[in-house]
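Service request form, structural biology core

Requester: graduate student, group of Dr. S.
Request type: structure prediction, single chain
Budget code: on file
Notes: please return the result as structure tokens.

Sequence provided:
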Amino acid sequence: MPEPQLPPFDRASKFEPMPDVELNPKDEFWVDPGKLDSPS
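Core staff response, request fulfilled:
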């Protein structure tokens, strides 16, 4: 059974590029990884 023909994947025209963000930036929502495992 042949696979269906898909149109070429044109990512650039449909989606905005993702902004460069840090994963855990030290802002008002910053979580200290050292405090996650310890009981509060």
